[in-house]
Amino acid sequence: MKNVLFIGTTNYDFKKASPDHLKEKFLGLSRKINVFVLARGRPFHKKIWGADFYLLREGFFYWPLAFWLAFYLCLFKKIDVLISQSPLIEGFVGTILKKIFRKKLIVEIHGDWLEGPFLSKKRRLEKLERKIVPFLAKFSLKRADKIRAISQWTLKKAREIAPHKPYFVFPTFTDIDIFLEGKETKFDNFILFVGGLEQVKGVDILIDAFRKIEKEFPEFKLIVIGYGSELKKLRFQVQPSGESASRPAGFKFQDKVEFKGHLSLEETKNIMKNCYCLVLPSRSEGLGRVLMEAMALGKPVIGSNIEGIPDLIKDGQNGFLFEKGDSGKLAEKLRILLNNKDLAKKMGQKGRKIVEQRFSNQKYINSYIRMINCQGMTNSQV
């Protein structure tokens, strides 16, 4: 079997709890390849799910240490294939190692590498980094042996730089089988968001939209699952803002918005299976894993009309698209769904069929192994 090294920045903190949503991914891959993962987290080394995880603490020295650790693994673990999980620093490191050790390099694209990094968090050297980012992407994509995109949008962006490379297109992993197994679902009176509470995810847009319609639907709540740097700001956003004159005594808008924090995959599924609809109002999104999960449970979905989201949401069929950042348009789409439960159920059924036809854990594993072992689509085949 081939020895494959994944280079990325995902945080695996095995000292707290195993990220069980990735268990099936690594168990499946390790049956076909020898998996080595270089990422962030702790402890330094952990063998689990058939994979060897080498983890470093996040910080200024992460990438210098990561490079030398990857060098060591290539030298002593006889790595055959390098997989850089971004075309930026990951891609740069992978490209240098490819040149040194003459290994095959696969570069993955999970989103908008030009704008995404600057939406996720503030950067002190943003002007300089905006000049470096395009260089890094071109450097790695043009030197990759194969490129993986997770959506048609990310494929298009990569082809603008490296049009003649072998390409593979398949989504980010989620343990979709456990969502497809969900049978006893209900349409309770709450709208759901699942994801990191960062500016890029647009939760503030969803809260604005919900505030616009909540008078019309007093029985509905908004439930937010996730944690991130925007939590304090979002909690402040749901505080009263001068609406008390027309409200019954004791009314508080913040009581209709519930922040659940970080939950396990099983806990998330148990809430998601009873939501009325799921909304993903992202400002940037390579595809949208939670959309697949909600669709698998037969839920209608609403998302920003950006990047990879239209790969999953067929407007008017299994949900609605709205223009990025427009809380008024999002409120209109919510109003349509909340006023028509038959439509919501019909859209949910359509979405489930899409997932059943296109996605499964085994299809993901097969796609990954084929990417490692075979040639992909060229520019003329896509």
Largest sheet: 8 strands, mixed
How much β-strand is present in the residues? Answer: 15-25%
Query: CATH topology of the largest domain, what is it called?
Result: Rossmann fold
Give the uncertain stretches in residue-range form. 378-382
CATH superfamily of the largest domain: Glycogen Phosphorylase B
Structural class estimated from helices and strands: alpha/beta
Computed over alpha carbons, the radius of gyration is 22 Å
Strands ordered across the widest β-sheet:
3-4-2-1-5-6-7-8
Helix content: 25-40%
CATH architecture of the largest domain: 3-Layer(aba) Sandwich
Structurally, the number of domains stands at 2
- State the distance separating the first and last CA atoms: 29 Å
- Please provide the count of β strands: 14
- Principal-axis shape equals globular
Task: Please trace the helix and strand order, writing H or E for each element.
Answer: EHEEEHEHEHHEHEHEHEHEHEHEEHHH
Total helical elements:
14
* Rounded average pLDDT: 92
The first-level CATH class name of the largest domain: Alpha Beta
